[in-house]
Specification:
By secondary structure, the protein is an alpha/beta fold. Helices cover 44% and strands 14% of the residues. The structure holds uridine-5'-diphosphate-xylopyranose (UDX).
Length: 457
């Protein structure tokens, strides 16, 4: 099928790349000319595992191209995926101006009947507005539009894998022709013919389900899913606070809880709270949407509150351990909002560093992928790709993102170069007993603090 993708961010590039990978002819466009130039030159504006391989393969096979001419892209597709950003407004609601702009462009540029698919995360009832805009701005009265909602459930860092081996595909449609067209688009994925070359720990290798719903339900499913994940994380974090007070270990507690299949292991990791460009904004947007609909979603407001407190609580720990922060040297491992991405949007690590700097601490940081982006936010701090190079002389080392690479470090070597063998692990990446044995004072989340030479509580 001939498919156009509007918006070349994480969602658009993964969607366009994977749809080309499974055999469709795809044109991707974006209104950021520099981004298109970069993509045309074979470079990626983001880091996402396997994406470079997939884009290059499809381009070489002649199934994928990029263009800065949105009109041309609109005319190239029988189906158009809208993958533009819906960032939060001041009041927390989703900013739908990019969707509105794209809808007007499609309406004026399309020359043949076209299926328009919302993939961006949007509040329920956006599809109805989209239909209205397409109808009223339509230039050629012979052109008709059908609208569908097909929310993405891609996680950054495993986006390609999630697209090719999804646990479900949701399509919100209003007629059987649209359902049929979407089934055709996803047929290779539904048949499981394209496995990503990575072990997928989360979902068993079962064939994905395609769920057909109304457009309103499809839109709501996305917000309801992300908000539920946020609730789970905040719940685990609140339990972690209790564990610290009552002498329990949150890892033991959540592990046992998760063995109940009704609860499940995923998204019960206590730590610095949820960040990134999806969960925080989707929770906010869902709260606002509920408010508009006359429903007080107090449960979600509380989850948001718990999440905001994570940073304060962690900084309190740092202050308790270091006393005065001014002029202290702090080594930071991890900047991205989670491992395997270079994304620092709403990253807890960025918030923590900002606060440390405000209190006069000096920071040297290492992250496998996110240093370049962080340098633009904090040009004044030190960076080194080598984790061993940020530790020497530091009064404390903070682990803010749980990259596997950091777990594997020679921690004895790190201890020997620190000014004080103090580690504050905001992600529970390391084992307290092992760290104690190595001679560290070690603080983590929802577990008891340990220090070399002291009795284990
Ligand atoms: C999320 C959804 O998971 C995905 O389905 C949707 O399409 C987009 O939004 P993503 O933003 O990539 O994906 O990140 P995710 O893996 O969900 O993690 C979000 C945040 O929660 C991260 O900051 C992560 O560190 C944190 N988290 C996650 C926890 O603190 N504990 C956990 O147990 C899991």
């Amino acid at each position: 099928m001939r498919i156009s993708v509007i918006g070349c961010g994480y969602v658009g590039l993964v969607t366009g790349g994977c749809l080309a990978e499974v055999g469709h002819h795809v044109v991707c466009t974006d209104n950021d000319a520099a981004r298109i130039a970069m993509l045309e030159a074979g470079r990626l504006p983001i880091y996402e595992p396997y994406l470079d391989m997939i884009l290059a393969g499809s381009r070489n096979a002649g199934r994928l191209r990029f263009t800065g001419d949105v009109g041309e892209a609109v005319r190239a597709g029988e189906a158009i995926f809208i993958c533009v950003g819906t960032p939060p407004l001041e009041n927390g609601e989703a900013d739908l101006s990019a969707i509105d702009n794209v809808a007007r462009l499609i309406a004026t540029e399309a020359r043949v009947p076209t299926l328009v698919i919302e993939k961006s995360t949007v509040p329920a009832q956006t599809g109805q507005e989209l239909k209205r805009v397409l109808a009223v701005y339509r230039r050629n009265l012979g052109v008709t539009f059908r609208v569908a909602s097909n929310p993405e459930f891609l996680r950054e860092g495993t986006g390609v894998e999630d697209f090719l081996n999804p646990d479900r595909i949701v399509v919100g449609v209003e007629d059987s022709a649209t359902e049929h067209q979407l089934r055709e688009i996803y047929r290779p994925v539904l048949e499981g013919r394209f496995r990503c070359p990575v072990h997928r720990p989360i979902c068993p290798p079962t064939a994905p389900q395609l769920l057909v719903t109304t457009i309103n339900s499809a839109e709501l499913i996305k917000h309801a899913s992300n908000s539920f994940l946020a609730l789970k994380i905040s719940y685990a974090n609140a339990v972690a606070d209790l564990c610290e007070r009552l002498g329990a270990n949150v890892e033991e507690v959540t592990r046992a809880m998760g063995l109940d299949p009704r609860i499940g292991q995923q998204f019960l990791r206590a730590g610095l709270g949820f960040g990134g460009f999806c969960l925080p904004k989707d929770v906010q947007a869902f709260i606002r949407l509920a408010e508009r609909a006359g429903v007080d979603f107090g449960l979600l407001k509380e989850a948001e509150k718990v999440n905001k407190r994570r940073i304060d609580q962690f900084l309190d720990k740092v202050r308790r351990a270091l006393w005065v922060l001014k002029d202290k040297q702090i080594a930071v491992l991890g900047l991205a909002f989670k491992p395997n991405t270079d994304d620092i949007r709403y990253a807890p690590a960025i918030e923590v560093i900002g606060r440390l700097l405000a209190e006069g601490a000096q920071v040297r940081a290492c992250d496998p992928e996110a240093m370049e982006k962080t340098r633009k936010v904090f040009p004044q701090i030190g960076y080194d790709r080598d984790p061993y190079a940020v530790a020497p002389g530091a009064d404390a080392l903070l682990i803010l993102t749980e990259w596997e690479e950091f777990r594997q470090l020679d921690w004895q070597r790190i201890r020997d170069t620190l000014a004080r063998p103090l580690v504050l692990d905001a992600r529970n990446l390391l084992d307290p007993e092992a760290m104690k044995k190595l001679g560290f004072e070690y603080h983590s989340i929802g577990r008891q603090d340990v220090a070399a030479g002291s009795a284990t509580p």
